Amino acid sequence: MFRIQHLSKSKHIEKHQCDWPLTQPEKQQPRFGKTALSVAMLALSTSVSAEELILKSIAQHDGIVNESPALNNTGGFAQPNRSGLAALSIGDLSDTRQVKTIVSFDTSQIPVGAEITEAVLLMRHARSPGASPFDVLAPCVIDVNSGGFNGNVALESEDFDAPATSTAAGTLSAVVRSNEWSQATFSSAGLGAINRSGYTQVRAYCTVEDNGDSSQNTANFASGETPQYAPELVISYTEEVIEVPHSIARIWNEELLSSIRLDFARPTVHARNLYHTSAAMWDAWAAYDEEAGQVIHHEKMAPVADIDAARAEAISYAMYRILTWRFAPSPGAAERLPAFDARMAELGYDTDYTSTEGDSPAALGNRIAASVIEFGLNDYSNEQANFANNYYTSINPPLLPEFPGNPDLVDPDRWQPLSLEFFVDQSGNLIPGGSLDFLSPEWGHVSPFALTEDDLTVYSRDGHDYYVYHDPGAPPAFGTEDYRAGFQQVLEWSGELDPADGVMIDISPASRGNNTLGTNDGQGRDLNPITGQPYDQQLVPAGDYYRVLAEFWADGPDSETPPGHWFSVANYVVDHELHINQFGGQGSVLDALEYDVKMYLVLGGAMHDSAISAWGVKGWYDYIRPVSAIRHMCDLGQSSDPSGPSYNPDGIGLVPGKIEVVTAASIQPGGVHEHLAGDNNENVGKIAAYAWKGPDYIEDPDTTTAGTDWILCENWWPYQRPSFVTPPFAGYVSGHSTFSRAAAEVMTLVTGDEYFPGGMGTFDAPQNEFLVFEEGPSVDLQLQWATYRDASDETSISRIYGGIHPTADDIPGRLMGAEIGPDAFNHATRYFSGELGILPTIELVTDISGQVFQPGESVVLSAMAADSDEADLSADIVWTSSVDGILGSGSEITVASLSAGVHTITATVTDSNGQTTELVFEIAIGSQLPTIELIGPANDTLVTAGDEILFTATADDFEQGDISADIIWLSDIDGMFASSGSASVTSLSPGQHTVTALVQDAEGNEASASVLLTVYGILEDPGASVTLSSNPIEDGFIVESAENSDIGGVAIPFLSNGGALRVGDNNLNQQIKLITSFAIPQGTTVSSATLYLTRGGGVGASPLDLLGPCTVDVHSTGFSNDPRIHASDFEAAPTVANAGELIAPASGDVFVAEISAQGVAAIVDGQSAQFRVSCTIDDNNDGLENSIGFYSGESADPALQPQLVLSASGSGSNTAPSVVIVQPADEARVALGDPVMFDASAMDDQDGDLSSMIIWRSSIDGIIGEGSIFSVSSLSQGSHTITAEALDTEFVPGRATITVHVGVDLTPLFVDATVLSGLNSIPGAIGLAAGDYDNDGCVDLAVTPRNVTETVLLYKSNCDGTFTNVTTQANMVTSGGAGSGLAWGDFDNDGLLDLYVANQSNLNTRSELWHNQGDGTFIDVSDTLAIPGNTGAIGVVWNDFDGDNDLDIFVAGRYGDVPADSLYQNDSGNFFDVAPFMGIDGINTGSGPDRLTYMGAFADFDGDLTQDLWLSVDFGADVLYRNIDGMLVDDSDAAGISATSATHGMGIAVGDPNGDGCLDVLVTNNGSERSTDPAPSPLHANNCDGTFTDITASAGVLMRNLTEWGANFVDFDNDGDEDLSIVAGGISNEEYANVLYQNVATEAGELQFADVTGATGTSGMGNSRGSIWFDFDEDGDMDWLIANSNGVILLRNDGPTGNYFSVKLAGVVSNSYGVGARIEVTVGSKTMIRYLQAGSSFASAEELEAAFGIGEAESIDQIVVKWPSGIVDTLRGPISANSQLLIAEGDYQ
What value, to the nearest 5°, has the Cα angle with vertex 1239 and ends 1237 and 1241? Predict the structure, then answer.
């Protein structure tokens, strides 16, 4: 037996005149059989899983605490970091002091949401000196503390007696022998004390403090310092396990059905939704099957490793997009749209991934959805107008069912709308009162599934066509016996809807069903063919059965409409335990997904075709409904007795006891019609019917029934709610009957069995629970069907009992469905086999595309075509022209009459299945005019006289092709100034030019294009006084190392008080010298200079008096060739010595030094001039300090800072105009379309008021206005830089600038450019490396692919935004290994990038070093250069760690039998692995496990200009090696990173996101898969003092608890603050969402990230590893390249972003690309740093370029490059924004 559940038949009852509440309380719904499935169950189901987590103690926090003094119960001292097998102790010592053990565990690893059931502490016993404390001091117990005792997890003496969260939380078991484990099970209070978000500490001790025997009685245990014997905390817990009980297609089909239940009851629309979504799911499935045809979206995907996952993802994205689109206007949208989002999240997919580009299943799903949506917008359903009718109008005025009769009916053969006070459709949606339009009368036009032209008849009415498929012919006409009998049957059967009438019937398959098609002649079945037993009889009240029928098949409130109802039936069939997934009941057993998508396509296609067919008939025949016809005939009278009262030949027929005339006799007391007489017997002569009394008689739907009785026929009501009455569309034919019979045929064919599983399907209708608008049924009742056709036929007769259809509507619908179902099945199987859905092919025989023919010349068009079976279709090709229309047909045609012009020729072929393919190309007839496109400069370009201007244009002629070289350039001021398509010009005169690019073809035809160009005049420098403040990071003082040594000892920078700068001596008789520095502006010619210092304090006598004179030395670029303070600056030689004397003021605190002419000559523009003040007598040997303190550049008051006043010489008298913008305010934000008032003034010293000549420009819209004041409301959406500019008579500009944001979100948007770039062919990727290996100025890419034989793939940039795979051409022959990490670096300093590729294979397959030959090819030199290579390697990093100016290589070894890290020291091209020598190879020489390193990062973390090394470690803490004189020394603990590092470190990002000038580090984590602990990716903030602080949470980095890999700090919005990207993917190929954080901190030194993944359009699921950022499209903002299991994803940054600046380096002394250099860029008060790394993220390497975002700034003020060699280059600004600078080492010292 099989039971079907009908979902959510809740009661929504409305009664006319609103005397019922609009919504009635819901009855408890019945439960159905075991196989019934609720919507809730379709969420991913859960089960409880018991798990165990074993935590090792944390070595550095293990130890003992001793009592001191004895017997006072307070701690004396703590001993952490004890090693050995007996490091921990409990008991007492010989001096009677008690000893306790403290152990710590990271219990944050317990999964979130897990329920802890047990916790056991285990400690391994070593020995017990003296008596066992378990004997003499027992019991020995544990205390448990949430977090560290005393609030600090580090071991302290106070931990001895510190309070605990839970005391005596468990008793330690006694142990005697070595290697035994003492264990303590936590009490419930102890369990509650476990800290789920951090550390838990346990204190072990014996409760008897001392036994007084003056001997040691302890038990000793191993500590965490010996990992294999470390104390353990074993946590037992339970957690929910999520399981997917159904195929992904089923899950999304249920989402659709749930949405239909909350939508308007539109059977046509939802049949279409069911079909379109079924087709989408099938097309997604078939995309990964070469032989299967596709229905709507035709695209085949390359083979993938996990086809099931790919199909699930593609189906999910397709369904999500389609359902979101289709149900956005639904009344249930508020509930359903979030449900779709939740479902995607539950499945692990990112809803923000909207890209349709690339090979990912998600992109495929999005493409399928786009195709289906586009198909739906063009299928004649009028979806754009919410399926409104185009031309149908009803001929009859509305029926008012709340009033008697039907007096206004015009045509009793035509449909009549209803007019209700309020209408609630079959899905329970309230629709405002009035007359409802006919639903879908033109639906016959909608594109079908399997219907053909052979099924179609086209009719016309009122000038409009009506498409009718499976035309059943006209229904019975008014006035005929069939008409009267059919509607009269509906009336009579409504008298059988009373369960109290005493009629009992058998409703089992033994008595019902087994009809001949088109009849109700069945007498049931004798036996159940599955069980071989007779069907059990089921006797129930007939009235209950008929009412349940009417309600169940009506698909009333909260239902899925008839087509969805049959999908529910299909789903329930599939769930039956006896069902087997054999399509058609034979052949192999299919997996659930394949079976479901095939079943859905057949059933969806059948339902869609049923809707088209039935509604095509409805629209054309426009047939009346029973309520209209019955009331109308009853209004006319009776037609049975011509001699009787109320006779009318067209009236209703009389049937004694069922339909009678109300007579004077029948209304007498006791008469059957007594209650119908009326107040004045006015109803005598009217027609009475014994029928259901109607909704007026239902006072409470939970407790009352209307019952049956004699009613006036004029008041007859179908068995429906008063707010529904009848569906809003014509009756003929019955949609229910058509849908149901088609579905029954489909289910029979799909399952291969006409019977339900088990031989019977059932539906339980519990007593007084099931019926919606009245009480009932009166008994428990079960609908039963042996076959699908039995259920279908029952559907049909239910419509009669429901008062919706007569038999004339029903039977034709059955007959139509009986054809539609098999047709759909047969049609679908042709897709399954590939007979359909694989389009024909067509190609030109002679390619004439692009050719030019003379007028009248014969043009031969030839092509060949074939269908999917390679049958020749060439003769069927149809040729059309975009100009002349149809040209002819056949494989070859000759046309001599083509019109002049350019023709788009289309060759179209259609196969025997109606499938079409087109081929399109262009030809020209006659000579064509050339075309020209002016590329640059842009219109209204502004330049300064002498600037280089690049003029670029392209010209094309259809005959000649590219004629760009013939372009000439003309200026209306200077005449012709250049020729050719591209010209660089510097000679244009100042002025406003109209520049024209002109071209002429060979026939003299011309084309031109023009732009406006303004060339500004140059303002001569008149000379001025310049006051400079010192650079705060470049001033301080230096103390002599020892008396009279004349060598600097200690440099003191960065003080900000009044003694920040000092000169004199100290109490040790050591001399003190003052250093201060000033940045000299570029272009400054200095004629004089004066130094001013403001006194802030002093000690002892004035050194000017005691040790003077005190003089000033000058250095042009900084003592020690570095403007920063160094101890060596004390004695370093100056450029000019004694360049001035420091003079004390007569009063006040400002000291002055006039700089000599020689000193002035040493002050160089664009450099940092440094001044050293010292006294001629170094000390006076008095043992007292005698010094003066001055304020430094650190002072918050600018007036107190050191100042250098320069007199600058110049020439010229003209001044630029001064422009002031009054309104709007800077950074104003306005809504799109709002008016914006602009107001400004302009004054010039020479030319006066220029306000009227102001030109206003927008960076987006160009010139937007002129004059002083104006208003504009047409600004485009975006962030506008608004410039108000005035030119004086010499064209010298004055301007002011503001920013106005018009209707914009300031977060950039990204677009998937993978396909566009040509990178979509990569099969899968791990590592990525960007670099210009061929030095053509374009960034090339190297990729380590997944799951292929190649170790590395090389993609050369074509310099046009696309890439070409040149691996073979480059001679990068694979080693057959498994490439992982890779990085570009120039190991031989020849200026060519070489490539190191790590091999992660555990096999004997080495890593590779590819040496760049300079001709586009590479040679693997790993053998010849003595690099033994690494197996099991991941991360690769180049850097010059030893300071010898060539690049060394660090390789992280994660895998292999003995994973080992290598550091290959480069000695003039020979490499030696020095990692073992330094002890940094990660191999544990003791008994512990070897270190498993994933990635390394070289950077100068401590600011000493040496290269330190940070390692991310799997199954261990990160390691930080400080570089001390070329040796790498582990400084992890001192740096504070050990306790806060990733538990399973993966990738590393290094940057300065908080802008404090010190490099911070983020390490990604995969702890969620390596163990059960949560997996944050910790962000370590550099405290600028050698230590780091974990700021992960406070910075807003999400604790996503999934495996994260590649991470990058990047300023993707170019606002000057580094943002953060992280990619993710499961170790076992699970797909996770990547995340993009925007740095939204507003204050310097702060850091706050916001997740903008969705807002930027970068949401997307994937199994990702490496990631890099580079400027793919060279537009100045950074684009994101991600490596994942499906290839790579290139996300192009389309802004909005700020201005940018980038720096490339050319090393001269240092390595050739400046790897390891620190670049500092200053814009205003903000300094940004970048550290040039060759290897970063995870297994990846970014381009060796430093990119800076500078927001709205238009220039750079200063660039400082600190090279690995120690050389410092300083460039003074202004340096124009949006440019790239190549800096050669030493050029700007």
Answer: 175
